[in-house]
Amino acid sequence: MxxxxxxxxxxxxxxxxxxxxxxxxxxxxxxxxPETNYGIVTDxxxxxxxxxxxxxxxxxxxxxxxxxxxxxxLNAKFKQAYVDEKLPTGQKGKNSEDVAKAKEHMxxxxxxxxxxxxxxxxxxxxxxxxxxxxxxxxxxxxxxxxTQDVTITRQARTTDERTATGETEMGKKSIVPYGLYRAEGYxxxxxxxxxxxxxxxxxxxxxxxxxxxxxxxxxxxxxMCMRKLFVFRHDSPLGNAPSHLLFERxxxxxxxxxxxxxxxxxxxxxxxxxxxxxxxxxxxL
Length: 285
Fold this sequence. Notes:
Blueprint lengths: L6 E12 L3 E2 L5 E2 L7 E4 L1 H16 L15 H11 L11 H14 L1 H6 E4 L7 E4 L2 E3 L2 E6 L3 E7 L5 H4 L5 E19 L1 H7 L3 H13 L11 E12 L8 H5 L2 E5 L12 E5 L7 E5 L2
Antiparallel strand pairs: 1-10, 1-11, 2-3, 4-8, 5-6, 7-10, 8-10, 9-10, 11-14, 12-13
Helix pairs in contact: 1-7, 2-3
């Protein structure tokens, strides 16, 4: 049964000496807002980590496949939905009933489709378009970040020609010495009713957010930690208060604005627990 509750949530996470989200348009340096130098982590990056965690803990379990991953082409997965539902495949001009059955199949079998939605209208076996009930905004750092290029020495060269000029060569990696990021998100009960997102699925989202950096460590990303996860639960499927008013109840400020922050304790997190009627705050971390 689909969840009957709407949720809003705020997550705080930080990075130390790493690149939380490289920008392909800027030589993979950490993403920033060029006007303010505040750091950015995209929603796509965060949802990727949630998908990876779900794969880790639910791989092989019915209903928890992941659509957006490089195992097969998307069109092949769409065709498989038609095959599983015993619908005609490879024909142009699909009727709306067949597309609806295929879309329902995708929501039932793929966790990320019923959570985040998907555009599945390509190929000869389209499965329609699903608007996901779980949405996450870009994460933004709480202070301007410094992007630092660190020179490194590589001990192995790639070609014989380059080896002939020496055994080592210089390289670089781009890091953020420290950055605390904030991201906000939503879970829509009315959209969950359409995709079949259950309360169990919602709990899995919270668990994935709490653990998504624990199983994603790499030298490039440095030390990344989830620091706080605040969840606002609405009694009404349509919500009991505007989301922005709830987000404003979580305030994060630097302890000393005169010096650059270098750890989580360089910030204070204040929570206004005077909530509108019908809204409950759960502090998951």
